[in-house]
Write a structure and sequence with these properties.
Elements (H helix, E strand, L loop, with lengths): L4 H10 L7 E7 L1 H6 L1 H11 L3 E7 L2 H9 L5 E5 L9 E14 L9 E3 L8 H11 L3 E3 L4 H9 L3 E6 H9 L3 E3 L9 E10 L7 H19 L6
Parallel strand pairs: 1-2, 1-3, 5-6, 5-7
Antiparallel strand pairs: 3-9, 4-7, 4-8, 4-9
């Protein structure tokens, strides 16, 4: 993130108090890591140069276990009702829909591309393949591969609307709509979790608050509007 002189002055005034140091371990999944964290980590590097952030990416399930075992300080992950006893703050909500490449010919769309953890039911696969005239499926183990293969015209991808938003606005992807298919599958919340065992401290409390503030601001720019 490039900061102008006014922004630098504001940051230096804001953080003349505690000199944050130590290590904070944060877990998240690929899409959040790719689209959100680069800017946030640059911001922390400028405002708290002595603070170390360990960022780990994987499926949400792993991070729930690490939060319970105090192996992780914070997690930005998809909610799971079974783990509602872990302290959290809701950041935003999203749903899934179908998308295709904005620049490829229709004849290349032979596959339904999806991350199996995000499908509400196996029946949806059969309905979607029939409705969209597809013959096969591709099942990556993460959403970023679903997005990448869809962009390259290999098939029709099942993606979160907020992840697809900027790609649609830039013409890289376009929504696929059919009367017999819905447009808002797998409603889910993205939440900021904190380990139950993490002790309250100036460093942990401030970084948690800054992370929440940045995430909420970032998520507001991703609201689907098409």
């Amino acid at each position: 993130m490039i900061l102008n002189e006014t922004a630098k002055t504001e940051l230096s005034l804001k953080y003349k108090g505690p000199d944050l140091k130590g290590t904070i371990r944060i877990g998240t999944y690929d899409s959040i890591a790719l689209y959100f964290f680069p800017r946030f980590l640059k911001y922390l590097k400028f405002s708290h140069p002595r603070l170390s952030i360990e960022l780990i990416t994987d499926r949400s399930q792993r991070f729930f276990e690490e939060l319970k075992n105090d192996d992780l300080d914070l997690g930005v992950i998809i909610e799971r009702e079974a783990d509602s006893d872990i302290p959290y703050q809701t950041i935003y909500s999203d749903t899934f829909g179908f998308y295709q490449s904005g620049g490829e010919e229709r004849r290349y769309f032979d596959h339904l591309i999806y991350f199996s953890d995000t499908l509400p039911s196996p029946k949806l696969i059969r309905v979607a393949i029939k409705s969209l005239g597809l013959s096969n499926d591709i099942r990556p183990d993460n959403l970023e591969t679903v997005r990448g293969l869809t962009e390259r015209g290999l098939g029709i991808g099942f993606l979160p609307h907020r992840v697809a938003r900027d790609l649609v606005l830039s013409g890289i992807l376009r929504p696929v709509r059919r009367k017999d298919l819905g447009d808002h599958y797998f409603p889910h919340n993205i939440k900021l979790y904190r380990s139950r065992k993490t002790k309250s401290s100036i460093t942990h409390d401030l970084i948690e608050e800054e992370l929440k503030r940045y995430l909420v601001s970032w998520s507001e720019t991703l609201k689907a509007s098409f």
